[in-house]
Amino acid sequence: MSTGHYRDRLDDQPIETELVSDELLHGGFRDFKAATLRHASLDGAGMIGPVRREYLHTGSVVVIIPYDPVLDSIVVIRQFRLAAALKTECGAALELPAGMVDEGESDEAAAERELTEETGLAPQAIESCFRMLAAPGLTDEHATIFLALVDASNLASSAGNADEDEDIRPILARVDDLIAAVDERRVENGYLIACTHWFARLGRSRAQALLGTLDSED
């Protein structure tokens, strides 16, 4: 039961934070860093720290839900994922097109680029839907989720950049079949699960509204 304290509201909230240092421990495919910081206690009585926390530095990323309203289907992709292979028996993971935002690139431009690179499709219309943190105790990865309207009637069977060692198989999934795959626990990718739940509640109506912007341009 809520006590009425503002910290009990159901929203993310700011908190006073003092960053003492931010050290690069290892630079690689993902930078591994260590931050030393102080932050206010949740009861407001004082500061906690200094504390040291290691984290993976990824930054801004985009995730795209490519939806074909004519086929009532979402394009998902399959590719090898190291962490999935190390932790589970299913290294050929099912997921949504996604990628990092390049320096100086807008989120929308990154979403359009990643969609084309990983599915071969170009968006007919695109809009941001929500944002999420993948694992805020581990990484600063911050994702903007986009809904993109696509024509997937001639979806290619392979995609990806060869110079980045990408081996990607696009897959056309009927919306109800994808929801069932999530409900039956046949997929474990966090972004895919979150986006499928969002689409099950709001996706078709948002897609129709987005489709209306195309009609108004004709």
Q: Approximately how much helix is present in the residues?
A: 25-40%
**Multimeric status of the protein:** single chain
Beta-strand portion reads 35-45%
The Rg value, from CA coordinates, equals: 20 Å
Global shape = globular
How confident is the prediction overall: mean pLDDT?
94
Total helices: the number is 4
What is the count of β-strands?
Answer: 10
How do you describe this structure in short?
The protein has 218 residues and is an alpha+beta fold. It contains 4 helices and 10 strands, in the order E-E-E-E-E-H-E-E-H-E-E-E-H-H. The model has no long low-confidence stretch (mean pLDDT 94).
Structure description:
With 218 residues, the protein is α+β, with helices and mostly antiparallel strands. It has four helices and ten strands, in the order E-E-E-E-E-H-E-E-H-E-E-E-H-H. It has helices at 82-87, 107-119, 175-183, 190-217, and strands spanning 17-26, 31-40, 47-57, 60-68, 73-80, 92-95, 98-100, 125-133, 142-149, 169-174. The strands form two sheets. Strands 4, 5, 6, 7, 8, 9 and 10 form a seven-stranded mixed beta sheet that branches. A three-stranded antiparallel beta sheet has the order 1-2-3, with no helix packed on it. The longest helix has 28 residues, at 190-217. It is globular, with a radius of gyration of 20 Å. The protein starts with 16 loop residues before the first strand and ends with a helix.
